[in-house]
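Figure 3 (text version): structure tokens given as input.
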């Protein structure tokens, strides 16, 4: 998703995150989102996708991508369920809502995502507007990518995570270790480790179903791969390699265990110039998806 965020926008969001962290006294991990909300004067409320009573008072103000969701408060439950919303930010009330039915492990990321919407200044205009631009699907996707970028930079404390990750060995054990320090989800930590530890390294992260247990990790439309995250170096050199190509290699090196370390081995890939490079695979199953880290053998 980071490629959807322009260079200027990344720099602007980075400056905003640096200011927030500086105003908080450059805290050590894990970052307290309570403190962030207090600094930004944001209120947090919970609702349920099965009971949206807390939203009823604000139903007439709720918009997604600049489009009013519902004109009559009585319809809010139906609309929220259909839109599959996990969180909302209401600019005029400076209030964040989170669906408490979402797994608790996701609450921190959802909250950070909505906080990012609140401090990225041009998002207020987007969420409150109703012109053709804000309703364009590509524009909506970009706005969400920007919020994800801001959330990631915030809860991983800007450059601090990358700096600490570079001092660790490039293994899944290291990912789990630093996850314990930052208290973010394993999946988001895994993602940041691949992209930020060393952008020029030849590495990737595959989030997929378990090759031997299709009930673990299969996508909503039956897809085997949920996410394929790559470093800048990998993307540049291996533009010819797809997520499904990598999944086929991972499948050959996955045990039948349903949980814990399940992927181990080495594979050879051919880059866009026809040159071969060997990678070591290191993967973990958290019982609902398989996370595989791959890095070139040097």
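Below: residues designed for each position.
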């Amino acid at each position: 998703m980071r490629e959807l965020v322009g260079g200027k926008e990344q720099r602007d969001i980075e400056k905003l995150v640096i200011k927030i962290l500086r105003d908080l006294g450059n805290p050590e991990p894990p970052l307290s989102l309570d403190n962030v909300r207090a600094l930004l004067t944001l209120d947090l409320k919970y609702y349920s996708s099965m009971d949206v009573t807390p939203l009823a008072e604000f139903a007439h103000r709720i918009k997604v991508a600049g489009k009013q969701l519902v004109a009559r408060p009585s319809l809010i439950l139906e609309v929220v369920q259909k839109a599959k919303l996990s969180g909302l930010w209401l600019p005029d009330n400076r209030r964040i809502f989170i669906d408490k039915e979402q797994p608790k492990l996701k609450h921190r990321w959802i909250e950070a995502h909505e906080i990012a919407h609140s401090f990225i200044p041009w998002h207020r205009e987007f969420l409150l507007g109703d012109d053709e631009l804000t309703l364009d699907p590509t524009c909506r996707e970009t706005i969400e990518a920007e919020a994800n970028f801001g959330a990631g930079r915030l809860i991983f404390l800007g450059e601090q995570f990358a700096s600490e990750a570079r001092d660790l060995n490039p293994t899944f054990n290291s990912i789990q270790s630093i996850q314990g320090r930052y208290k973010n989800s394993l999946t988001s930590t895994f993602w940041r480790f691949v992209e930020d530890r060393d952008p020029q390294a030849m590495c990737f992260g595959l989030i997929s179903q378990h090759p031997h247990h299709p009930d673990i990790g299969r996508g909503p439309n039956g897809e085997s791969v949920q996410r394929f995250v790559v470093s800048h170096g990998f993307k540049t050199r291996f533009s010819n390699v797809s997520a499904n190509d990598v999944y086929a290699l991972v499948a050959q090196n996955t045990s039948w265990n349903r949980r814990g370390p399940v992927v181990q081995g080495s594979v050879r890939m051919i880059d866009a110039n026809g040159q071969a490079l060997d990678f070591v695979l290191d993967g973990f199953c958290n019982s609902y998806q398989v996370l595989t880290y791959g890095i070139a053998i040097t």
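The first strand starts at residue 43 and ends at 47.
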